[in-house]
Amino acid sequence: MSLRKGIVIRGFGYAVVTGSLIALLLAGCAAVERDRRVMGLDSTTRAYQQAIRWSDFESALGFLPPEMRLQQDWPAQFEDLRITRYEVISPAVMLTDTQAVQVVAIEYLYEYNQIVRKTTDRQSWRWDDEAQAWWLESGFPAF
């Protein structure tokens, strides 16, 4: 009887250890996935910043969700628009695994009147599992 009891206890111990290792592995994978998304968010927001900063609105359009691209006023909204300054006020912060926000200050002018204006843009970013990409859910700032 004691031999049998030892085997059962030992078998249970292996199951606990194996289960614990699997749980740690899954937790580690989730952390790696989150880190990968954070790095992707940083890369995406920087690329968007460059596109907007240099008034490359065609490239910036690629950061909008596909369904939103069709709704944007293009190109009339961006005619003669020049961005003079783009400053990150609050770097991108992940609120959940699929939602992030960033706040930027943008100075811009229209070439026909040369009046510099300012706007604060609260950007809302959403992770798309299918596309494996971050989309600018809040759309372009109101210029």
Instruction: Kindly report the CATH topology.
Output: Nuclear Transport Factor 2, Chain: A
What is the number of E strands?
4
Rounded mean pLDDT is: 85
Structural class: alpha+beta
How far do the termini sit from each other? 82 Å
What does this protein structure show overall?
The structure is a single chain. The chain has helices at residues 2-53, 57-61, 66-69, and strands at residues 81-94, 99-110, 117-128, 133-136. It is α+β, with helices and mostly antiparallel strands and 143 residues long. A four-stranded antiparallel β-sheet has the order 1-2-3-4, covered by helices on one side. The chain is elongated.
How is the secondary structure organized here?
Layout: H1 2-53, H2 57-61, H3 66-69, E1 81-94, E2 99-110, E3 117-128, E4 133-136
Antiparallel strand pairs: 1-2, 2-3, 3-4
